[in-house]
Amino acid sequence: MPQMDRYKNRAVYIEFVAKEDFYKLPYEERFTIVFITSGSIKLKLNDYPIKLVAPSILCLEKDDKIEVMENQNIAAQSFCFHPDFFNTAYFSEDKGYMSNSLKIETGLSLFKKNDINSGVYTVTEKAYPKLYEWFFIMGTEVYAQSDPLWVCRIKKYLIQILGLLEQLSSQNEQSPVDLALEYIHTNYSDKISLEDLISCAHLNRVSLNKMFKELCGFTAMGYLLTYRLKVAESLLTHTDMSLNEIARATGFEYDTYFIKQFTSKRGRTPTEFRKESREFAFIQH
């Protein structure tokens, strides 16, 4: 069942299950993220046998088929959302829930199944605390609806979770740059120095920046700034968070510095970007 927003006259098509037993999966007309925090479970996923061992994440589409074979003290939580949850820029008091052609593309490939991708992702030791924190906050907000921007916050954490999973899924064996990238994607909302990345990658400054430029086209700190701005773009487009809230959520200490960096790199202010992205989406729709 959708959540009824007590601040606005709208249904929000998301659910959070604190104790997922896997027997109702997948949820109808939903994308579902299942976070396995302890134990293990053997399943048939689309008639293919798999074993999930904590900590890991399972991403499901609405048409996937699940059959539980063996449960070994599994503990898991799940968050599911209708595709329309990713197609909504803002709420209009006159028109209600405004659905348009906006789409958050981050992480949607994680749900597709093929010969390479089973939808199962191992959670690293470094990523686990952040993922656990983000899931906890999403679950709390679904039930608490702590203020009128609760939906925006859930979108923010969902974008963070999917972005981190995308990065983890692209790694086979972790190179020094992969270690630094995981650190960035996990902690970009916090203060990060070049020394932090050097320590994480076990390289000196020159070697780290050389490898980053070869693989990513930026220095290590240049990539950090680019990634923060990328997340900021999604938050500007898909939430009503203030510039100060977005600045803090993406690791900028002050909103004035965020505005300066965004304007310099994107050629327009964050406010102009937000207005243009939404107007373009409605024109396309």
From TrEMBL:
The keyword Mitochondrion does not apply. It holds the Pfam family HTH_18. Keywords: DNA-binding, Transcription, Transcription regulation. Transmembrane segments: none annotated. Residues 178-276 form the HTH araC/xylS-type domain. It comes from the Bacteria. InterPro entries: Homeodomain-like_sf, HTH_AraC, HTH_AraC-typ_CS. This is Helix-turn-helix transcriptional regulator. It comes from Clostridium yunnanense.
